[in-house]
Specification:
It is built from 13 helices and 10 strands. The protein is α/β, with parallel strands linked by helices. The strands form 3 sheets. The chain has a 5-stranded parallel β-sheet. A 3-stranded parallel β-sheet has the order 1-2-3. Helix 3 links the parallel strand 2 and strand 3. It is globular, with a radius of gyration of 24 Å.
């Protein structure tokens, strides 16, 4: 019996040693300890005020059960949602017909899209302008430009089409004439262009999503892409532009403020960058105090449970809580506790000012 007990102890000791050695060799991807910090917590499932999500994608809205979507929106206090994936032409008309069938014209807003595949054709500009007019008549209230412009759109000669390509100028001018905003996504986080090594803050994201990595020749430097977008804004002062993801400057709010100062027609939305704001609560509050009238609420990927993190960052004064996608932001966040006046600007007032045709009782709150 003594020998059996001794053997058991040796085995357990050996297992413990193996476990300890394995723990010391643990990959960064696996290291995610729960915080031992004990502080007040205020998880939020509903926004304090009715809000508009200006950045959402619903690819088959022409056949969706919209009652289900509206029920999910109501649970979050989402008064409006903007589907940026309207497609244009007959597809957009099908979406609008479905919205009208359900009677949700005052809740669901649709932006149209344009096709760059035939850019360079003699009639491309005129046909695209005709499509924009057709789409607006059918109910489109904005134009969404995807990030393929600048990254993968080529003309018929195989050359990259820059975001500020002069051939696109009539499109942006037409949007100003029609009174609709242009929401544009240009590039991606700057770290995707930086070396994939221990100094890259988005190493974990690039490790788990390697296709997101870029370089100065794939297809152009990050700074050049952003500058092209900013040039476009400046060339068209009579058109309202909403730069998606805070123009990828949420980690440098002073710089973003300078860019916006030079472009009065430039607005931004906070989709997919809430983790940046949540790790700098004092700086973010200073930014919202000055530029809150030009920032819109956006989320990007529609997932009702993930909105709760946005509410908590914007409304609470909670400390040191996690983002819902660790690979995207492994750091902890803090609540901004934004004042009601700024929350109302962010949640609905700014959108009501620049997106045509929004009607609601939200202004009575």
């Amino acid at each position: 019996m003594r020998q059996l007990i001794l053997l058991l102890l040796i085995t357990l000791g050996s297992s413990a040693a193996v476990y300890a050695q394995a723990a010391q060799r643990m990959d960064f991807e696996a290291y995610d300890p729960p915080s031992s910090l004990v502080v007040p917590e205020h998880p939020m499932q509903r926004a304090k005020f009715p809000f508009l999500d200006v950045h959402s994608h619903h690819w088959r809205m022409d056949e969706m059960n919209l009652d289900q979507l509206i029920a999910e929106m109501d649970a979050m206090n989402m008064q409006w949602i903007v589907n940026l994936s309207g497609g244009g032409g007959l597809r957009l008309k099908g979406i609008m017909d479905n919205i009208k069938k359900y009677g949700y014209e005052d809740r669901i807003i649709v932006f149209t899209n344009i096709n760059f595949g035939s850019i360079g054709d003699p009639d491309w500009v005129s046909s695209t302008l005709q499509q924009l007019e057709y789409d607006v008549k059918n109910g489109a209230r904005g134009l969404k430009i995807f990030k393929n412009l600048g990254l993968s759109v080529n003309d018929q000669s195989g050359s990259r089409v820059a975001v500020d390509d002069p051939r696109l100028d009539p499109i942006w001018a037409k949007c100003g004439e029609l009174g609709i905003p242009v929401l544009i996504h240009t590039a991606d986080p700057k770290q995707f262009w930086e070396p994939f090594d221990a100094t890259n803050e988005r190493w974990l994201e690039l490790k788990t999503h390697p296709r997101r990595q870029r370089s100065d020749t794939d297809p152009a430097p990050w700074a050049q892409l952003i500058e092209e977008q900013l040039n476009m804004f400046k060339k068209h002062p009579n058109t309202t532009f909403i730069s998606a993801h805070m123009s990828w400057h949420a980690n440098d709010l002073d710089k973003l403020g300078q860019l916006m100062d030079a472009r009065p027609n430039m607005y931004v939305e906070i989709g997919a960058v809430i983790a940046e704001l949540g790790r700098q609560p004092r700086q973010a509050n200073r930014f919202f105090a000055k530029y809150g009238h030009r920032v819109l609420f956006g989320k990007d990927a529609y997932n009702p449970e993930e909105y709760h993190t946005y509410f908590r960052v914007l409304e609470s004064d909670d400390e040191y809580f996690p983002y819902y996608k660790r690979y995207h932001a492994f750091w902890r966040m803090y609540g901004l506790a934004l004042p009601d006046a700024i929350l109302k600007q962010l949640y609905y007032e700014n959108a009501m000012r620049i997106i045509p045709g929004i009607r609601s009782k939200a202004t009575n709150n």
